[in-house]
């Protein structure tokens, strides 16, 4: 082993070859066979808690925890299986670093992460971890597919948009400002099941844009998944590239905090198109015409813009929501697109044409509040 790499702050553990790892693992098992095996099984039963504690720079992807290496470097070359049997193929707690060939169980991982060479020190560290209150070590209980809790877990497992296929997809739709879209995330392997196969075909993992559906209190009640082509060039070529789950009725995907004025419409891309020309205007996407009619409105709202889709369902939804809002004393104004919806206007006619068409449909005071102020902000950038 080169002296300069071990005496001048080098990463001692990453220099271990797969053969040395096998030897270390054998020493751990041979020193106290029953204790080592039992400790490894107990750790494996709490594999996700182990990973969150020792590999906190990683994140969960389905049944695996991904991180850069045993020393907790960010990345995804090392993967830990979070669920599975206690023994044999596919056992929980088994890990492999694809970049180095290192592999082992969670005792080995703790030894490497804490740089422990003495078996007794490894056992003590493992026992210390397992001595914390068991409530914090329990695996999440299974939840009903399609439930609000399943939706919350999926959103939590997803990652921010920046640099992902989902960002590329939105940019392809003309939506170039994505840094502050906290209601949207990306999942690289979101399962899609083809209903036409009658449930006989295994679901396919596909990249997806994941949108959080929330209530007025901000709590996530559901998600909408939009499956994408691997390069982000449009939606995936599947029978139903968009699906929602959870409690949707009355709720929406929200962008911006609402005070007294907001805009509502059906699709996420439609409402983000409006936000491209008026980023300070709070907007919500109800995800469908039927859900738009049932949207729960904030008690502080005094003016509602409805971004209408140019089809019969869109016109009916606009009329129904407008009637409901006016009955509650809320002024309503309709934003009518030139083409089928505001995103079509943005993509085919351009930002300036969309801005000119929307501006004349705003209340005069909102031109001053949202339009002129935004033009000044953008001019200073």
Brief summary of the model shown:
The protein contains 14 helices and 14 strands. It folds into three domains: 3-136, no CATH class; 146-246, DNA primase DNAg catalytic core, N-terminal domain (Alpha-Beta Complex), CATH 3.90.980; 249-381, Dna Topoisomerase Vi A Subunit, Chain: A, domain 2, CATH 3.40.1360.
Question: Which characteristics define this entry?
Answer:
five-stranded antiparallel β-sheet, Dna Topoisomerase Vi A Subunit, Chain: A, domain 2, alpha+beta, disordered N terminus, 381 residues, five-stranded mixed β-sheet, DNA primase DNAg catalytic core, N-terminal domain
Characterization of the model:
This protein folds into three domains: 3-136, no CATH class; 146-246, DNA primase DNAg catalytic core, N-terminal domain (Alpha-Beta Complex); 249-381, 3-Layer(aba) Sandwich (Dna Topoisomerase Vi A Subunit, Chain: A, domain 2). Strands 1-2-3-4-5 form a five-stranded antiparallel β-sheet. It has a five-stranded mixed β-sheet with strand order 10-12-11-13-14, with helices on both faces. The chain is built from 14 helices and 14 strands. The longest helix has 17 residues, at 364-380. It has helices at 3-7, 18-31, 33-45, 47-54, 106-114, 119-130, 148-157, 165-172, 268-277, 289-293, 312-327, 342-349, 351-359, 364-380; strands spanning 59-61, 64-67, 78-81, 95-97, 103-104, 184-192, 204-214, 220-227, 242-246, 253-255, 261-265, 283-285, 303-307, 331-335. It is an alpha+beta fold and 381 residues long. Helix 9 crosses helix 12 (342-349). It starts with a helix and ends with a helix.
